[in-house]
Amino acid sequence: MSILFSPLGESDPIRGDFDGPMLHILRNYTDIDTCYLITTKTLEEANNYEKCTKAIDNLAKTQGREITSYQIRTGIVDVNNFDRFYKLFLEEINKIIEKFSNETIYLNLSSGTPQMMTSLALISCMSLIGNLKAIQVFIPNEKSKYGNLPTTHKDYDVDMAIENNLDNLENASRCLEPELMSVYYNNTKALAKAFLEKFDYEAAYSIYNNPSFSKKEILELIQHLKYRQQLDVEAAKKVVANNSYSSKLFLKYLSTDKKDERRNKVLEYYLILNNLLRLDNKSGSINDFIIRLPSYVLEVQKELIFKVANYNVLTKFCGKIKDKFYLDMKKIEKYSKDLYNNLENKFNGFKDTYINLESLNVIINYELNKMNVEDKDSIIDVFNKVEELKKYRNISAHELKIVKLADLKNDEDVKIDVNNLMSQLQKILKYIYPDVSDNYFKLYKDLNTYILKQL
Predict the structure, then answer these.
(1) Strands across the sheet with 175-176, in order?
(2) Taking Cα atoms as reference points, which of 377, 382, 406, 378 lies closest to residue 392?
């Protein structure tokens, strides 16, 4: 007899009136009498193993056979961690081989996350251990995968799913024992895609860096984005020096010339911060973004003052204590009594203090009004909104609390849409650096799209 080793996913045991991959393999491979089912934290909390065993028992009774099931509880929360699954699967499969040395072990490559599928594909096509056979199960139709409740949903009814399962009436096998390197390649692409969509270029490069199928140009572009996101500009430029796509990478913003250094850091960090917000939008938590935003905006404020008033606020108004800049009120008073009074009024008696968002806002307001800059009110409004986010920055940094987009929108004292805030910041950057193309701000999005098409 034979054994099935299968992760469980949100389509197991039955979804959309058809077998999920695990149940479909058992239905078609009647030599299987034992199955090991792997669950993660989410599936364990949703009792998916119990749902699967109920469906397995029903199938066994219908087919007049016995199937013994064992659960491998992992408690894993981070289902995108490739290393954890690969090591775990290899360890568990070796245990099974020690116990059933002469049995065939079927590996389900169609359930679970891309990381799970890739781990099993790697084991099946690169390992010489045991008698392993990989099985892929095709989706019967789009509805079965996307049009119904996932099996982890609180309203999922396994008894009703068993009763309505169309595979009980007329089963057409959707199983395939594929060319293993082809499966490995497809699952590796899926995993690389998942990492690219998370802007995790280091992980994407690591998984795609396989000379048997990777494309040199695409590997270089992924590596470029990895270095670029780390602000390692020399390595980012070097890796694409001969790449045909290099003309679209806005490499001039990676210049290390002293005259361009501040501009380039401000622009490049905006792209990184925007990636972080897009990622946080997907995860539901914007804590990381909120923590990083104020420090970044402080740099934008300095650049704006330089653009409008043609001076570096650090050298113009600041003293220095232990590598930290502080505003020197005597220097400010000497420059402008009106600005001095504005700071006094804002803070009810302003003393020398370390430079911060609030004090720079007063300086910006003064300079914009003095120069009669167009759209000055909208510019000031952006910085005021960042000031208002200080409460959530403190929560994110010092409390075990998840901050969500809805929290900012629903807070009567704040009411901020951070996606719109980033769009407004982009307009300010365009004002400071008018030669910057709109396409520059879409660099990561456009390059990701290009890479995904070429994988």
Answers:
(1) 68-73, 32-39, 2-7, 104-108, 131-137, 175-176
(2) 406
| Helix 180-197 / helix 114-126 crossing angle, nearest 10 deg | 150
Within a domain: residue 101?
yes
Shared domain for 142 and 17, answered yes or no, is: yes
Nearest Cα residue to 130 out of 157, 110, 101, 107: 101
Q: Give the total residue count for the chain.
A: 455
Same domain as 21, residue 158: yes
Tell me: the pLDDT tens digits for 78-100?
877 777 888 899 899 999 998 98
Nearest to 263 by CA among 279, 275, 250: 250
Tokens of 284: 């539901």
8 A C-beta contact, residue 151 and residue 12: yes
Could you report the per-residue pLDDT of 376-410, keeping only the tens digit for each? 889 988 998 898 888 888 888 788 788 888 888 88
CATH number of residue 92's parent domain = 3.40.50.10770
Strands (E), 257-333: 318-321, 324-327
Count of structural domains, the chain: 2
